[in-house]
């Protein structure tokens, strides 16, 4: 049996909507989550489960993560390895390869050995990063709505800002101005940020650059199954508190009455579900398609501008013999190749052992949106280009290759495998890539792009576009903020309305 009325219906199955659903279910709200065709974090070829993208998440080492872990009771699972193994990440650039340590003294000694000519600027930069991390931690440790909109929310946010350790950062300031143009240390700092942010890398402010670099240094907690394993943890928590999940179902239209979201219509059955809140964990472009009148969002776009796609995330999975893995290769590597026929390539690579004989490299790169959308031949070449870049990092890769595949380029896997079934083939291709947007307006310390509240009452945003420059930390902040808005809201109206809508189906 299922109720036809829910306190909250959440659309999407990414980190932000899943976290929001778990928090609200834990707080006693009747929650329904619809998958909205959000792709599974992994996919199958024969008996292999391959990731849709590299998994690197500082889950457990930031204030907002700690709040989510504590409230959901995830500590026994996620805190067991209190620190990931050294190093938290590596950087490989032409002429240099670094283990970026947790330990400041060890890290600075490494840089002094490699870059003695800029020892003092490197030391000053890391002191500034430390001050910024402490200041931002102090803000994010509070249970705030970010971005704030109501009078009380703005007051609380302003109070948190005043309590920050004084950090003055001019808009557009070059934090690395003391380093010569083209210096390798610039790449070492910027490479992790380019891949960890959910926005156009060109828009990363000095604050965001330091926050992302600092979070990467904190490292991630190894989690079996990667993003799929993390999703399962949230699913278990939602179900444990009587929340419902329908990953294979989606909404066709959000019902709006007198400027207020009152429910939605399901795509498969056409049934209507009434609810107190609708939380959109999908891109704003998808949300606009489900509204009866797209003009309802025009006031939002007039205020903050409309996001534009600049890049797409492309993933290449490489299965190889374990003998082909070079010694010292860590779980998490940011790599920039030397100039080749296709220019320098930048990759984020995660590695893991599949069994005693095989290892997996999951490599991600950012593809310019114009090339993807305007050049029909471009996508067919990306796999080979990225594979050649990997061979620069692993010179003997060709001798140990077992399988090469991307779920995004429309090509079949290279290597021995069973032919893909029609369903699997249908879910592959460029449309499966995640976009990165640029934003005309970034407010509140340059952290926020889109608001939690939309012009439609009781329709909230909870996605990677709210605080895009913060990456996964921004998704958790959006989830906590949306849950806070709903928790604070007057619940008498939905509770009064429920008897009029509630139906029990057998």
Write a structural description:
The chain is α+β, with helices and mostly antiparallel strands and 506 residues long. The chain has 3 domains: 2-46 and 224-307 and 439-499, FAD/NAD(P)-binding domain (3-Layer(bba) Sandwich), CATH 3.50.50.60; 85-218, no CATH class; 308-434. The protein is built from 17 helices and 20 strands. Helix 1 runs parallel beside helix 16 and helix 7 (184-196) crosses helix 8 (206-218). It is globular. The termini are close together.
Architecture blueprint of SSEs:
Layout: E1 2-3, E2 5-11, H1 15-26, E3 31-34, E4 42-45, E5 48-51, H2 63-72, H3 75-78, E6 89-93, E7 96-100, H4 104-114, H5 119-140, H6 151-162, H7 184-196, H8 206-218, H9 226-240, E8 244-246, E9 251-257, E10 260-266, E11 272-280, H10 284-289, H11 298-304, E12 308-321, E13 332-336, E14 346-353, E15 358-368, H12 369-374, H13 378-393, H14 397-400, E16 401-405, E17 414-415, H15 422-426, E18 434-438, E19 459-461, H16 472-488, H17 492-501, E20 504-505
Parallel strand pairs: 2-3, 2-11, 3-8, 6-13, 11-19
Antiparallel strand pairs: 1-20, 4-5, 6-7, 9-10, 10-11, 12-15, 12-16, 12-18, 13-14, 14-15, 16-17
Helix pairs in contact: 1-9, 1-16, 4-5, 5-8, 7-8
